[in-house]
Amino acid sequence: MVPLLVLCLLSPLLVASVDPPLKCQQGTEGSEVSDCASGLNACVVIKDESTMFGVKFTTTFYTCGKNDSCANAFTITIGDGKHLRSSSACCTEDGCNKNLDWGILPTTWTQNGYICPTGCYAQTEEKCKGGPVSCTDVASADTSVLKCVQGAEVSNASDCVSGLDACVLIRDQSTMLGTEFDTTTYSCGKSDSCVNAYNITIGKEKHLRSSSACCTEDGCNAKLNWTSLQAPWTENGLTCPKGCYAQTEKECTDGPVLCTDGQRNCITVEGSSGAKTFVLHGCGTSNMCGVENYALTIGGIPYNIKTITCVPAA
Ligand SMILES: *[C@@H]1O[C@H](CO)[C@@H](O)[C@H](O)[C@H]1NC(C)=O
Ligand SMILES: *[C@@H]1O[C@H](CO)[C@@H](O)[C@H](O)[C@H]1NC(C)=O
Ligand SMILES: *[C@@H]1O[C@H](CO)[C@@H](O)[C@H](O)[C@H]1NC(C)=O
Ligand SMILES: *[C@@H]1O[C@H](CO)[C@@H](O)[C@H](O)[C@H]1NC(C)=O
């Protein structure tokens, strides 16, 4: 009797393990209900609505899926008025997706302030090309992107890259390359690296001074004022072993250099402008040490500062 009892107790488990496959409607509207492949445990309906090609397409598709990958809704924007939205619903009874009904989420496609550099679609394996695209919808925790005047002249403010929280005005005056340059640059920056004024000496009569002002309201840098420094370049008795500038990745080695005014550090600055890079050694003010996200115009070319390192001048 004992073996039979064991068999009776086990039988529901045996039956469960060879469950018949789930049946779902599969294909387009009105298609047949048929067996799902093993491992798929949900009946799904997917509604896609697309205006990506100028014309509006609405598609409903029935399929088998997995209950854990049953996404509710997502949206994509590839350009002005060019969107795709998809929403899906699941259920787990045979044929249940035949009558599954849900509303496609209403959306106003309101621009949310974020920008992606490329928005495009191509039915080829080549990369597609498209201009910047303004993202829409789904208010994120921080929807406000600061807008600042950017470039060499006052113009309409445009969106800053996320993470930059200050509008900046930078004036660079340089005699480092023999000729005198005086440049004004508007940009986005970080408020914690907003230096007021700094200066560098790389040799006799070879100086650079930069002064900047920041503010944090949209477009505020159009009206920023700063004090143009007129301080004389008086030697202060300190020296740095190297004073040079090179527009290459190689080291430059001229020097030593006599520091002037408030310069108490021997400074190394590395920066780039597209493929161009530069390295600079000289005397610098201590407020330059560790500065990041700063633009510096040298010889009329705007560079991004990569690193600034300092050691005390002797
Ligand atoms: C999905 O199905 C598995 C197995 O049937 C079940 O254990 C799990 O709880 C289900 N998950 C959801 C989110 O329904
Ligand atoms: C700046 O914005 C105004 C108003 O939106 C527009 O009329 C003007 O053409 C814009 N100027 C530039 C330089 O883009
Ligand atoms: C150099 O920068 C320092 C620190 O900001 C400033 O006090 C000084 O006046 C500047 N010197 C010159 C010559 O511009
Ligand atoms: C900028 O300077 C001008 C002229 O010196 C002055 O009239 C204006 O009020 C200043 N603006 C700010 C924001 O300080």
Task: Explain what you see.
It is a single chain. The chain has a domain at 2-136: CD59 (Ribbon). The chain is 5% helix and 45% strand. It has 1 helix and 21 strands. The protein has one helix spanning 2-17, and strands at residues 23-25, 33-35, 42-50, 57-65, 73-79, 82-91, 111-116, 133-136, 147-148, 158-159, 166-177, 179-189, 197-203, 206-215, 235-240, 244-246, 257-260, 265-273, 276-284, 295-298, 301-312. The strands form 6 sheets. Strands 11, 12, 13, 14, 16, 18, 19, 20 and 21 form a 9-stranded antiparallel β-sheet that branches. It has a 4-stranded antiparallel β-sheet with strand order 4-3-6-5, with no helix packed on it. The N and C termini lie far apart (100 Å). It binds 2-acetamido-2-deoxy-beta-D-glucopyranose (4 copies). One 2-acetamido-2-deoxy-beta-D-glucopyranose (NAG) binds at residues 223, 225.
Annotation, overall tally of beta strands: 21
Determine the structural class based on helices, strands and strand pairing.
mainly beta
What order do the helices and strands follow?
HEEEEEEEEEEEEEEEEEEEEE
Question: Within the CATH hierarchy, at the fold level, what is the topology of the domain at 2-136?
Answer: CD59
- List the bound ligands: 2-acetamido-2-deoxy-beta-D-glucopyranose
